[in-house]
């Protein structure tokens, strides 16, 4: 059993790669130099106790921390080799079209189901005609597994759906702009087990077309949906590896303590 | 935050401890059954043999408990990492121990017949083999309960000694029968007893491999060289 922070096990093809990523909130250092590759077409789960930096890291991946005045990000994060930060960094608006996000609490806009999904394509001007937009909305809802539940009431408010449906609507909204990567921040923590299972099934299907990074507090969820698991603790990346190995024979003492519930 | 020895949920520790306790108990019983069976054979002790046969049920009861407890922990706790390995290993080791006790009971049963016949010389070699296997079984159970992978590997390597003893005992019994056909009945029984004891050695090896997996999280890949040559004994070549 190891005690020191461990080296990477390489991914086949890295969609995103972080090197030496540090985040400070004012004087407090929240991330201590993270090196992590996000494999293309894989689900990567970030786990760890509250305050370990996993959500902070997730938010670095599409520059969401830019919206927090006291947050400073340093180090390098690349998306297909293109740098996110610094003077040559990608435009945040375009970046967030390529790297979408789904949040913990379903947050549909107070608009119709149709307008929720059409929102992204509209602001990015991703269609030529009304027919084309209809098609984009239909496909996004279909892929999110929601089409059959809402196809007869697209003009109704998105906020009127059940929690699980709202979350899948948010996923449909995220995928309507054809992102390459989808970030999910505890997407099921407000859902019941059946709605959770539907979202997990959806994550599994979306893996064919998207790269997914998910932060979850449920270890079992990480085990069920991800191919790679990264364990964060006190701002460090402690261990990352194939999910199956992490949950049967973790190499690091801290990982084992956390996933077996001996942390305290 | 620190990593402790214990789970945050104390009852989880309790459930895992119950499994280990039951295995320790079962291991002790299986060990005692094997030693008693060998003693019954060498001392021609019919009462002791009878007791070994009667006590086989106790070992089975232990296995039932471990099976139930394993299913319970899997269903209610969804163990992972070393906890998962300890639950899976408990289930498999209990299976091995149950077979060990069966072999012991079979030895005891045959000793009833053997004790009614003229003593034969190969019994001495058989007793030696029995002693060695008992030792290995005890050693491997200590390694398992002490989570000692190195010690388990040492036991696994020593199974060769059992195979060698078995092969030579097999030849000895064959020779004995050829020299005096009146001993064929008793020697046939001895042959089965020897096979039973040799099988116990194999179960000890399984437990050693489980111990290695339990401690390290890795399976032992490389095959242990097998030197049981008896399947070829008496061939024309």
Explain how this protein is built.
The complex is a heterodimer of chains A (264) and B (237). Chain A has 10 helices and 10 strands. Chain A has helices spanning 54-60, 92-98, 113-124, 130-143, 147-150, 163-175, 193-206, 219-225, 243-248, 253-260, and strands at 14-25, 28-39, 43-47, 71-79, 82-83, 99-102, 181-185, 211-215, 228-233, 236-242. In chain A, helix 3 packs parallel to helix 6 (163-175), helix 4 (130-143) crosses helix 6 (163-175) and helix 6 (163-175) runs parallel beside helix 7 (193-206). The model of chain A has no long low-confidence stretch (mean pLDDT 92). With 237 residues, chain B is mostly helical. In chain B, helix 1 packs parallel to helix 3 (81-114) and helix 5 (149-179) packs antiparallel against helix 6. The radius of gyration of chain B is 20 Å and the shape is elongated. The model of chain B has no long low-confidence stretch (mean pLDDT 93). The interface between A and B is medium-sized, with 22 and 21 residues.
Give me a quick take on this structure:
The complex is a heterodimer of chains A (264) and B (237). Chain A is 35% helix and 25% strand.
Map the helices and strands.
The complex is a heterodimer of chains A (264) and B (237).
Chain A (H helix, E strand, L loop, with lengths): L13 E12 L2 E12 L3 E5 L6 H7 L10 E9 L2 E2 L8 H7 E4 L10 H12 L5 H14 L3 H4 L12 H13 L5 E5 L7 H14 L4 E5 L3 H7 L2 E6 L2 E7 H6 L4 H8 L4
Parallel strand pairs in A: 3-8, 3-9, 6-7, 7-8
Antiparallel strand pairs in A: 1-2, 1-4, 4-5, 9-10
Helix pairs in contact in A: 3-4, 3-6, 4-6, 6-7
Chain B lengths: L9 H34 L2 H32 L3 H34 L8 H23 L3 H31 L4 H33 L21
Helix pairs in contact in B: 1-2, 1-3, 1-4, 2-3, 3-6, 4-5, 4-6, 5-6
């Amino acid at each position: 059993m190891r005690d020191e922070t461990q080296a990477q096990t390489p991914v086949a093809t890295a969609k995103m790669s972080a090197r030496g990523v540090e985040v400070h909130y004012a004087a407090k250092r929240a991330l201590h130099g993270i090196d992590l590759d996000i494999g293309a077409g894989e689900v990567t789960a970030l786990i760890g106790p509250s305050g370990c930096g996993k959500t902070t890291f997730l938010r670095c991946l599409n520059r969401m921390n830019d919206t927090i005045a006291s947050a400073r990000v340093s180090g390098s994060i690349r998306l297909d080799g293109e740098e996110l930060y610094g003077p040559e960094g990608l435009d945040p608006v375009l970046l967030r079209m390529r790297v979408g996000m789904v949040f913990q609490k379903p947050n549909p806009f107070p608009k119709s189901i149709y307008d929720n999904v059409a929102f992204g394509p509209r602001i990015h001007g991703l269609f030529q005609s009304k027919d084309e937009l209809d098609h984009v909305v239909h496909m996004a809802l279909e892929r999110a597994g929601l089409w059959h539940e809402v196809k007869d009431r697209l003009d109704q408010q998105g906020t009127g759906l059940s929690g699980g449906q709202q979350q899948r609507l948010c996923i449909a909204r995220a995928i309507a702009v054809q992102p390459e990567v989808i970030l999910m921040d505890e997407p099921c923590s407000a859902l019941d087990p059946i709605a959770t299972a539907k979202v997990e099934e959806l994550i599994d299907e979306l893996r064919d077309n998207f790269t997914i990074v998910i932060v979850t507090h449920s270890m079992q969820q990480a085990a069920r949906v991800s191919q790679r698991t990264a364990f964060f603790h006190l701002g460090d990346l402690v261990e990352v590896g194939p999910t199956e190995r992490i949950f049967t024979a973790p190499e690091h003492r801290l990982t084992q303590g956390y996933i077996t519930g001996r942390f305290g | 935050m620190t990593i402790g020895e214990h789970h945050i949920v104390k009852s989880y520790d309790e459930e895992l401890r119950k499994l280990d306790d039951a295995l320790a108990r079962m291991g002790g019983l299986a060990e005692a059954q094997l030693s008693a069976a060998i003693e019954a054979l060498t001392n021609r002790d019919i009462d002791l043999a009878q007791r070994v046969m009667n006590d086989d049920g106790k070992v089975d009861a232990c296995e039932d408990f471990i099976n139930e407890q394993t299913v319970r922990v899997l269903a209610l706790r969804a163990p992972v990492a070393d906890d998962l390995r300890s639950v899976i290993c408990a289930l498999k080791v209990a299976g091995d121990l149950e077979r060990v006790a069966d072999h012991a009971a079979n030895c005891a049963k045959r000793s009833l017949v053997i004790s009614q016949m003229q003593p034969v010389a190969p019994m001495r070699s058989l007793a030696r083999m029995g002693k060695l296997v008992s030792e290995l079984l005890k050693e491997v159970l200590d390694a398992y309960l002490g989570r000692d992978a190195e010690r388990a590997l040492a036991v696994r390597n020593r199974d060769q000694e059992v195979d060698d003893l078995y092969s030579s005992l097999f030849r000895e019994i064959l020779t004995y029968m050829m020299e005096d056909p009146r001993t064929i009945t008793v020697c046939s029984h001895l042959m089965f007893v020897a096979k039973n004891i040799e099988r116990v050695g194999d179960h000890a090896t399984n437990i050693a491999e489980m111990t290695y997996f339990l401690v390290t999280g890795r399976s032992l890949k490389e095959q242990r060289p097998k030197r049981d040559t008896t399947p070829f004994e008496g061939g024309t070549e």
